[in-house]
């Protein structure tokens, strides 16, 4: 196994030449198609720009409108509505949980609705009441801004509360976060005709991911076409999660880009390793916990890094183009205008491939990302 020089630390043992060549060949093919003037129908024939198909839980390629800019390709359907989601506040494994067995430890680590460190006092981390979240989601659906995915992320612990607030005016697309004992054990709530489940999110240990991926490949699971994103526990072996899920689409990875506990957030090196592996192993990923803004920052309360949506998009695009050396700097960049210039200068094929891998960015505000993108000149003819 061998890695290219200039890549993020620790990537050499996680990336083979085969994976890198495959990613470069795919990008080269997309570039050639774009240069040849690919029609809208032809663009939809290759999986260069994917989105959730809420009607069947699978993936469907979206046509690339000829008039869309690279920035618009990057931003279309990017922002998931995380207004119902509190921060990840799992307790450490050494806080008496291991004595109760691995099941109890997983339940404690997956719980995201009971802050223990006072962070719930911060407006940045306070979840919306269900009534307010549903009303905002309905308003966003009516406006139908292209930057929004119109997927409402809902912790399973609030599933019943959400159902009581739906009035049947058309189905709501929901990404369900499995944060209860039943969900962690693999059980999911019964379907409701007012809701279309677009995907599931859960946490898992490396050994559990290996089992899930093996069962998926043998056909023992996955018959229902469920899209599941796994957030790996940050423990020994967690960076191998992407390798484990290689070839198991629509199973993917969930990356945490911020939160009240600094140990939950990967640094730029670790995040660069994960993104590089996702691109070269063709493993989709979603991002959660970051600020609803283009560029990241250092959390003044915890000192932990927070990654904005342009940080992730451009780092992914850099790997797509084979420029691994720029990944840490792009993830750490805090100048939104500089990042916006880079986004506008991407090749359309690079933008397409980027969105094939980076599927969504969860934000508690659905208005702030759109307004900032407009101020940065990224939206083109899209109306705010």
Characterization of this structure:
This is HpcH/HpaI aldolase/citrate lyase domain-containing protein. Residues 14-26 have a biased composition (Basic residues). Residues 91-110 have a biased composition (Basic and acidic residues). The protein has 384 residues and is α/β, with parallel strands linked by helices. The chain has one domain (12-375). The protein is 36% helix and 15% strand. The chain contains 15 helices and 12 strands. It has helices spanning 17-35, 40-43, 70-75, 102-110, 130-143, 159-164, 181-184, 206-218, 241-245, 268-281, 309-320, 327-332, 336-344, 348-357, 368-375, and strands at 50-53, 58-61, 79-81, 148-155, 172-177, 195-204, 228-232, 252-256, 285-288, 297-298, 305-306, 358-363. An 8-stranded parallel beta barrel has the order 3-4-5-6-7-8-9-12, surrounded by 6 helices. A two-stranded antiparallel sheet has the order 1-2. Strand 5 (172-177), helix 7 and strand 6 form a beta-alpha-beta unit. Helix 11 (309-320) crosses helix 13 (336-344). The protein is globular. Mean pLDDT is 76; it is low at 1-19, 33-65 and 88-124.
SSE blueprint:
Layout (H helix, E strand, L loop, with lengths): L16 H19 L4 H4 L6 E4 L4 E4 L8 H6 L3 E3 L20 H9 L19 H14 L4 E8 L3 H6 L7 E6 L3 H4 L10 E10 L1 H13 L9 E5 L8 H5 L6 E5 L11 H14 L3 E4 L8 E2 L6 E2 L2 H12 L6 H6 L3 H9 L3 H10 E6 L4 H8 L9
Parallel strand pairs: 3-4, 3-12, 4-5, 5-6, 6-7, 7-8, 8-9, 9-12
Antiparallel strand pairs: 1-2, 10-11
Number of helical stretches of at least 4 residues: 15
**Strand order within the widest sheet?**
3-4-5-6-7-8-9-12
Structural class: alpha/beta
Shape: globular
Helix content: 25-40%
Q: How far from one another are the termini?
A: 48 Å
* Main sheet characteristics: 8 strands, parallel, barrel
In total, the number of strands is 12
Q: How large is the share of residues in beta strands?
A: 15-25%
Low-confidence segments? 1-19, 33-65, 88-124
SSE string, helices as H and strands as E: HHEEHEHHEHEHEHEHEHEEEHHHHEH
What number of structural domains do the residues give?
1
Mean pLDDT: 76
Region (Disordered): 1-26, 85-126
Biased composition (Basic residues): 14-26
Protein name: HpcH/HpaI aldolase/citrate lyase domain-containing protein
Biased composition (Basic and acidic residues): 91-110
């Amino acid at each position: 196994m061998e890695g290219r020089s200039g890549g993020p630390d620790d990537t050499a043992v996680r990336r083979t030449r085969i994976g890198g060549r495959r990613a470069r060949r795919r990008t080269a093919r997309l570039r050639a198609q774009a240069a040849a003037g690919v029609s809208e129908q032809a663009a939809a024939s290759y999986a260069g720009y994917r989105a959730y198909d809420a009607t069947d839980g699978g993936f469907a390629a979206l046509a690339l409108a000829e008039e869309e800019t690279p920035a618009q390709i990057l931003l279309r359907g990017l922002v998931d509505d995380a207004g119902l989601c509190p921060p990840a506040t799992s307790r450490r494994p050494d806080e008496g949980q291991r004595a109760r067995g691995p099941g109890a430890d997983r339940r404690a680590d997956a719980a995201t609705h009971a802050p223990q460190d006072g962070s719930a006092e911060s407006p940045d981390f306070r979840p919306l009441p269900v009534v307010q979240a549903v009303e905002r989601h309905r308003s966003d659906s009516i406006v139908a801004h292209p930057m929004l995915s119109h997927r409402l992320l809902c912790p399973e612990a609030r599933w019943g509360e959400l159902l009581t607030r739906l009035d049947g005016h058309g189905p709501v697309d929901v990404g369900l976060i499995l944060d209860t004992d039943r969900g962690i054990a693999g059980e999911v709530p019964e379907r409701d005709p007012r809701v279309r489940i677009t995907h599931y999110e859960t946490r898992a240990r490396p050994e559990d991911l290996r089992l899930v991926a093996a069962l998926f490949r043998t056909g023992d699971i996955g018959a229902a076409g469920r899209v599941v994103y796994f957030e790996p526990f940050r423990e020994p072996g967690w960076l191998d999660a992407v390798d484990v899920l290689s070839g198991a689409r629509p199973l993917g990875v969930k990356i945490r880009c911020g939160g009240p506990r600094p140990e939950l957030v990967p640094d730029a090196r670790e995040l660069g390793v994960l993104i590089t592996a996702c691109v070269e192993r063709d493993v989709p990923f979603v991002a959660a916990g970051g600020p609803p803004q283009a560029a990241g920052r250092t959390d003044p309360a915890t000192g932990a890094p927070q990654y904005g949506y342009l940080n992730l998009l451009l780092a992914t695009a850099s790997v797509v183009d084979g420029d691994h050396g720029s990944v840490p700097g792009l993830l750490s960049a805090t100048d939104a205008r500089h990042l916006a210039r880079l986004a506008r200068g991407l090749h359309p094929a690079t933008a397409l491939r980027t969105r094939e891998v980076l599927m969504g960015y969860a934000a508690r505000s659905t208005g702030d990302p759109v307004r900032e993108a407009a101020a940065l000149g990224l939206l083109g003819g899209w109306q705010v």
